[in-house]
Amino acid sequence: MLNFSTTRRRAGLVAITAATLLGVCACQPQANIADADVPAWKEKVLPAATGPVLEDSGKILNRDPLTKEASSVPAGNYTLTMACDGGGKAYFAVSSDGNKVADAAAACNGSLDVVKIKVQGSGPLSISTSSVDAPLIFAYHLVPTAS
């Protein structure tokens, strides 16, 4: 048989615990992406790269994509190493001479995401960085893959 007073006490304890947890979470200071020190963060999260073909870092404060270009990139195999922080995901669209080469994404939790890319022909290369989860900070570099 169920004791009504014990059930009522348990329900009250659960409600108090939930309210306390919500209150504590609401008091946690949120990171302000607009004030983030991107170069210092990039130094911590991205590994050093030898001879990057293209690299960038910055803040996405709205949903507008940011594009970085290199005028002449030789054909070959490359490694794109990406990171972002602030929540959600950052997306990286790689194009060579106007043709899509790859789409990649990085989870915005400070960890690294790495993709291998093959560029078919020499020419201009661009990487467009965007997110629907703005604001966030991002960093990436594209380096030739060691053979």
Describe it for me?
The chain is α+β, with helices and mostly antiparallel strands and 147 residues long. The chain has two helices and six strands. The radius of gyration is 22 Å and the shape is elongated. The termini are far apart.
Write the layout of secondary structure elements.
Layout: H1 4-27, H2 38-45, E1 54-60, E2 66-73, E3 76-96, E4 99-119, E5 123-130, E6 136-144
Antiparallel strand pairs: 1-6, 2-5, 3-4, 3-5, 3-6
Provide a short characterization of the protein structure.
With 147 residues, this protein is an alpha+beta fold.
The helix content is 10-25%
Order of helices and strands: HHEEEEEE
Q: Unreliable stretches, pLDDT < 50, 5 or more residues?
A: 21-30
Major sheet size, sense and barrel closure: 6 strands, antiparallel
Which structural class should the secondary elements be placed in?
alpha+beta
Mean pLDDT: 85
Instruction: Please give the alpha-carbon distance between the first and last residues.
Output: 73 Å
Beta-strand level of the residues, as a percent range? Answer: over 45%
- Number of continuous helical runs: 2
Number of strands: 6
> What is Rg?
22 Å
Q: Tell me, what's the shape?
A: elongated
